[in-house]
Design a protein that fits this description.
single chain, 422 residues, alpha/beta, Peroxisomal Thiolase, Chain A, domain 1, two-stranded antiparallel sheet, globular
């Protein structure tokens, strides 16, 4: 391996910029400080009425432009948070001209939401009142609706804003979405198709309809009286995940390109692995094949052995199903002496499409500062989960390589290996 190539002769992929937006704050510094302090960003929902919802808590991001006005729609929130994270990452990278590569955006699927549907229904009359055909007719000429809720539109506007090259790529792979966006950027640079890539994961789905859908799946925690204690990954009394929102962005470059322009290298993305099992819309195959395969593939892609991984940033949702399957994967990949593993979701909740990108940034910060973020709310250990989950308090550690896991509904799994700057 040369100084700028990996074990397969591919361009090494450097990280030169990072941005974060989470319920703990706007910006990398504020969010990272909250995670190390073990602070929870989960609160009672204030954005919309929750009287008839089984779950009334979530991780919410307070956007300055929402003060004193109706809440933004989910696509608008995705775009605002993605732009905030990307602006921070690009500024840190020192790229001050047109961005020299493509945009890869991980975001949720979007659709016209209930406030807009009700607005259109009110414009209909007679026997057709409220019917979809009449609502479609009422939406005729509503370019604002079309542009707001067009899936690819967010990526196009972000590409214009940051001056990225080529057509932006928007991807949605359930809870692995943010990691998928990074994987696309990594592979484009490794193949020599791009010198740089702007990779973003963003989520803004804390809204009534999405909450109801996840609640119907019995996937959400209902510990409404204790919001800060509701997200309990790997703990015996866990009962479901806490929905959240946020965004993260990474500026990726070939190490050769970063060095040529004198950029500070914050870390490396050494490898990526993906597997899908198509077993069930929400459950993983009980054999754990896709989860185990994604972890092993990422480690092998990085040219490493499992014993060279110092820490695992867990998917760690707090659902009985996920935590059990992730434990199975850890034992299968690492044997009887797995490395420490902890879940940021215990503090910020499950940011869905943003999770993989947020956790990649946190993994790089873990390497930079040599501190493992904790899994909070770990009160009653689960004897079926014999892992070091860094319970309740951050811990100093020597960390050079991190495996970051992202396991999505429908068996969509992506794992990333992050490493220290050379």
């Amino acid at each position: 391996m040369s100084a700028t190539r990996d074990h397969l002769g591919r361009h090494l992929v450097a990280v030169t910029g990072m941005g974060l937006v989470t319920p703990l704050g706007l910006g990398v510094a504020e969010s990272w400080a909250g995670l190390l302090a073990g602070r929870s960003g989960i609160r009672r929902i204030t954005r919309f009425p929750t009287e008839h919802l089984k779950t009334s808590i979530a991780g919410q991001v307070a956007l300055p432009e929402e003060a004193g006005r109706p809440p933004l729609s989910s696509p608008e929130r995705v775009e605002r948070m993605a732009a905030l994270a990307a602006a921070e990452a690009v500024a840190q990278s020192g790229i001050d001209a047109r961005f020299p590569g493509p945009l890869f955006l991980g975001m949720p699927p979007v659709e016209v939401e209930w406030p807009q549907r009700l607005e259109l229904a009110r414009q209909t009359a007679g026997e057709a009142a409220g019917r979809y055909t009449a609502m479609i007719a009422a939406a005729e000429g509503r370019r604002d609706l079309f542009e707001t809720f067009l899936f690819g539109g967010i990526g196009e506007r972000l590409a214009d804003r940051f001056g990225t090259e080529g057509a932006p790529v928007s991807v949605s792979t359930a809870c692995a979405t943010g990691a998928s966006a990074i994987q696309l950027g990594v592979e484009a640079i490794q193949r020599g198709e791009a010198a740089a890539a702007l990779c973003i994961g963003a989520e803004g789905s804390v809204a009534p309809e999405a909450m109801i859908r996840f609640s119907l799946l019995s996937a959400l925690s209902t510990r409404n009286e204790e919001p800060e204690r509701a997200s309990r990954p790997f703990e015996k009394t866990r009962e479901g995940f806490v929905m959240s929102e946020g965004a993260a962005a990474l500026v990726l470059e070939s190490l050769e390109s970063a060095r040529a322009r004198g950029a500070e290298v914050l870390g490396l993305v050494l490898g990526a692995g993906e597997r899908a099992d198509s077993f069930h819309r929400t459950r993983s195959n009980p054999d754990g094949g896709a989860i185990i395969g994604a972890m092993r593939a990422a480690i092998a892609d990085a040219g490493l052995e499992p014993g060279q991984i110092d820490y695992v940033n867990a998917h760690g949702t707090g659902t009985p199903e996920n935590d059990k399957m992730e434990t199975l994967g850890m034992r299968a990949v690492f044997g009887e002496a797995p490395p420490p593993i902890s879940s940021n979701k215990s503090m910020i909740g499950h940011t869905l499409s943003a999770a993989g990108a947020i956790e990649a940034v946190v993994s790089l910060l873990t390497i930079r500062d040599g501190i493992l973020p904790p899994t909070i709310n770990h009160e009653t250990p689960d004897p079926a989960i014999p892992l070091d989950v860094v319970p309740n308090a951050a811990r100093p550690a020597r960390v050079a390589r991190v495996l970051s896991n992202s396991f999505g509904f429908g068996g969509q799994n992506v794992c990333l290996v992050l490493g220290a700057a050379p």
